Every structure is written in structure tokens, then in C-alpha cells.
Amino acid sequence: MEHGTAVEAAWLSNIRDTRALVRENRVGSLAIVVSGSEGDQRFWRSHVGDVARDIFRADGSTTVLSVREKTPKGNFLGTLNAWREVQQQVRQGTVTLPDVGLLSMVFGKGKRLSPFTQALGNCKAALPTPARSATSGEYLRGGDLSSLYTATWLDTISRAGFEGLIVKWGDEVLIPGARWTVPHDAFREVDAIRFVWRTEPDDVLAREKEWIVVDDATNLMVTEYSRQDLEAIRRRRSELGGKLAMGVNLGSFAISYGLLDAALDVFGSDVQNEHRAADWDPYGWLALCCRTEEEWRAEIAQEAQAGRMALAKLLERYPDFYEKMHAVRARLEARRHRPLRIGVLDFGECFWVDMGLHPTLRASLERLTEHWATGQVAREVFGISQEPDERGNIVVNSQIASSADVHDSLIVDSTIADGSSVIRRGVVIGGRHGRVAMPSGGVALFCALDDLAFDGPSAVAMRSVGSSIQLPEGGRHTTLHLADGPVSMLGSEAIRNYDGPDYTTPILGNALSFGEASDRLDDVGPDECDRRWRERWEQSGIA
Known about the structure:
Shape: globular
Number of helices: 18
Number of domains: 3
Oligomer: single chain
Helix content: 25-40%
Strand content: 25-35%
Structural class: alpha/beta
Mean pLDDT: 94
Distance between the termini: 42 Å
Number of strands: 27
Low-confidence stretches: none
């Protein structure tokens, strides 16, 4: 994808504005972190408390709530479950609602990040990154960076008069490619804000993304389309008539306190029902936008005609879903004395750092070695501002043997002691290493190894400890620290299906399947996984 200098400048400006907002304590007074287990809840409560001055407010005044879903609720009912807990805290006087708060969704085991997610105690958002907390010395996790880079979003919609929560997924960083000049009252009278990249659909985007239809005259959402072929999207838009724009749905959104209250009033019993779950996208929003039963039935027919089954499956387990969403809308409109309004904020072309999948994680980290603009942006995301030296290397707080052959690489907080090491376009973070052989690139995160060798590009090792490992192109390695001792686990970027035998039976010579490893670490939690890894890391590799 090609980028213009204006977009790249916007990315850099938004990153720098984010850090200024943290220093100036201007946003982020309330952060709600939603996870899916008791161990995750403990971890995020402790960890976010340690790094809050770096990701929310430098003066430490942020109120952080760590909320757990006792059963999987989906992100719609999960949002309402978290809101119920916030309301209780407000009633008790322990929480004061700001104009705009942040609700960060960090739940999810991350099966598609196996075996790394198992090494993190089945919490993908706990993935350690190259960014480091200035106040605690801890490495920031994926969930931390996800929260940090909402600062400009919080600031913008707050200044535009919105009152509510931004709901953000915790395994991705999203840097807007737009510089916002939103009027001060633009979102004062809206009930939610959808975040989009306003662009015209093409064949690829139509199949891979959900689409928000926007009324150009009012900048309000009209409806949402699920993933489908391009001609179907064009036909449906033409049937609506009027001057309409299209935007790629970016997933995260803002929801007003009023809409949250109305939804919890209607869905309160479902929030407490362990057998009910529902997501916002695309059908939650679609149901909210359908003004009549007839419109909803037309959407059901449209889905069936296109051969898509997701909506039908939702209705099988939730037959009164639309009826309840319609009641939410009616209740809100009665309280507001006006129709439901869902605003739209155009992010432009975004800079993504997606840490939830092997290919996107690897690509995001490999960009750190690039010498052109996207490399600079990637490094700024992680707080690395140094310029490359005469060999094209960026070396931060590291010791590298003088005879080692290292070019065009990023080495941070690491020791590479063996002078026969060869690294080209490699990334080594938090490592204690003897010999490192990365002639075709690769990524090593927080490893301690006497000998690390990558035979091809795109290999990644994370928290690997011991004497030596050797990975093929696209290979993955980590060390799991089980109660009965360490276990080496291999993975591969070539694996595509984590719902079948590749997950439930041992592959690649592993002693355990990914599924069994996940089960054995389910009750351990990220805190204990961190402790076990650190103990072994400090005993292994080169001091």
C-alpha cells in the first residue's frame, strides 16, 4: 500500500500528540480493562497500575478498573457487563465519570498466536513489546500500547462535546492518518460514534471488511454492510439513494452514557445469563439502525440470499435480539426527545500494529528495521527515536561483540557476545545471547540462548530460553514453563487453521498440542508465567 507524505506526517504528529496528552494529563482519567479470567484480571489490575503514568496520565491520577467476564459474553454484552460494574462504582462514590473514558477489551486467549499465547498464560494482549515504561522500567504490553494511542481520540471527541466511553480492542494499535479539526459541538447530540476510514470499496476490501454507510449531508451512519462481494455493496448503496459515502469499519467505537444506560436497562438479564452472548459488529449495530421489523426482516433475507449464515446463527440462540435492540432505541429516543443519531469519525488511512496474528505481528516488528518513513513511524510507536548508525543499525542500551557482522538491524536492551554472529535486518529485544545467526532477518523477543539460528526469513522467537534453537523460514519458538519443568514449543506462520487437528494434536515435533498446552496453563495466569520466564531468563544465556 502506497502512502503520501501527508499521511506519514499525520501518523508522526498523532504519535507525538499522544505523548504530549499523557504528559499534560489532559485525557485518560478513567480506564476500564476487561478481561476473561481471574488470573488476567489480577494481572491487568497490577500491571496497568505500574505503567499508568506512561499510557494515561503522567501525574498518576487515572482511575483504573479491572473487570472480569465470568463467562464469554461477546463484545456487546461484555460492554454492558463492564458498564454495570462502572455504575456500581459510581453509586458507591469510588468513580467519577469523565466526559470520555476508555474501555479496553483485553480478553481472548489468542489461539491463532499459538504457541506464544500459551507462554503468556493464554492472554494475547499481554504480549511484551519493545516499548518500555519510563516510570516502572517494565516493558509495555500490547494492551498498553492499544490504550496509549487512543489519547488523541479521547481528546478529539471530548472537545467535540461527546460524553461516553471509547470501546477499544486490546491487541492492536491504530494511528489515524487524519489530523482532526472537529467543531466543538459536532458530537454533542450523538449517541455513538463509529470510527471509519472513508474510502470507496474495491474487490479486496469489500470481501475482507465491514462497511459503514454515511449520509454525507449529516455525517451520520445510515447502515452497516457485512463482508460481501463488491457488486452487492454497490447495488445496495444505489438502492438507498441520496448522497452517501462509504467507510471501512475500524472496529473500535464510542458509545454515549445514555445509550449504555438504555441498553443495560433492556439487556440486563441477558448480561447475567451465562448462556447468552452477542457482538456489536455487524449485527448489533445493524439491529440498532433498523427502524422497523420490516427493515430487519429484509436484512435477514439479504443475508440468506448471499449464503451467509452468521445472522441466522445469532437468531437461533437469540431470537428476540432485534426486539430488544428496538426497545433500546425506543427507550433512548424517548429520553432524548429526538431520533437515534450515530456519528462518524474519519480516521483516514491508518497505521496498524496488529499483535493478534503471527503474520501481522511479524510484519509489524520487521518494519522497525526499515529506513524509509514507515520504519520511522513504527519506531516512534514503540518510543524508539534514535537514528541509524553508519551500518544502518539502531542500537539501544546493548552490548554487541565488536567483530559481529550486524547491519540494518534493531538491537534493544540486549547482549550479543559471540563475534561470529551475523544479523541482517534483524530485531533483537531484551535478549541475552551468545551467537545469533539471522542472515535473512528475523525477530527475537526476550530470549536467552547460547545459540540462536534462523535458516530463513520471517522467523520469530519469543521468550525462548536454553542452549540453542534453529528455526526454518516462518518458524516460531517459545519455551513454556510448566509446573514440572520447561517445554520447548514450535509453531509456524504457515499454520492457518487453529480450530482443527493442528491445534488439538501435537505437530512440528512438539511433545504437547497447542490445545493441551493451553489447558495446562489456563489456571497459571500471566503473572506466574512472567515470574517463571524471568527466573529462567536470568539463569540462561550470556550475563
